[in-house]
Design a protein that fits this description.
Elements (H helix, E strand, L loop, with lengths): L5 E7 L2 H13 L9 E4 L2 E9 L2 H21 L6 H26 L6 E8 L2 E7 H9 L25 E2 L1
Antiparallel strand pairs: 1-5, 1-6, 2-5, 3-4
Helix pairs in contact: 2-3
Length: about 170
């Protein structure tokens, strides 16, 4: 695959800030498909949301089973598809709950908690293909500045014209 040479236009602490910074040039017709947002120094965060016991395992299994049963029931093209989906929801919840408890018990207390995992970058770089980088630097954005920039209107926590990204 042929990699484009790219230049960092701005860096932001959050992905939402970077997305807002790209949104305004998009509204002005700028070819934003040539301006990716790249998360740097990515880490996996697992946020523990609470303890998991027999009841929680059964509830989690019931919810998963209900979703699967509902979805499979909706796939029936016949008029009775909704009724079949409701039966699938109830049956899936029952089977999911009955399977969730022994699976939990088989873990013998390991991972005795519920959690949500997500990826978190330390910064989000807005980069542009070299062919459009100069034009991108000149476009105004509406994101408030955290630090002043030397040229152009992209507001970022890092000066423009950073290292090339390939």
């Amino acid at each position: 695959m042929n990699e484009q040479a790219r230049r960092t236009i701005a860096s932001y602490t959050t992905c939402q800030e970077a997305a807002r910074a790209v949104d305004h040039p998009s509204d002005q017709g700028f070819p934003v498909e040539r301006v990716p947002i790249i998360g740097q120094d990515v880490r996996l965060v697992e946020q523990v949301t609470g303890r998991m016991g027999q009841a929680g395992a059964a509830l989690h299994g019931a919810a998963s089973g209900a979703l699967i049963g509902w979805t499979l029931g909706l796939l029936d093209p016949v008029v009775s598809g909704l009724r079949l989906a409701l039966y699938g929801l109830a049956f899936g919840a029952l089977v999911g709950a009955l399977l969730g408890m022994p699976v939990y018990a088989a873990q013998h207390g390991r991972r005795n908690f519920a959690s949500v995992s997500f990826i978190q970058p330390s910064r989000n770089d807005v980069v542009a293909d070299d062919a459009v980088a100069e034009e991108a630097v000149q476009l105004p954005t509406e994101l408030p500045s955290r630090t002043s920039t030397s040229s152009g209107a992209w507001k970022s926590s890092r000066p423009q014209g950073g290292p090339a990204v390939t």
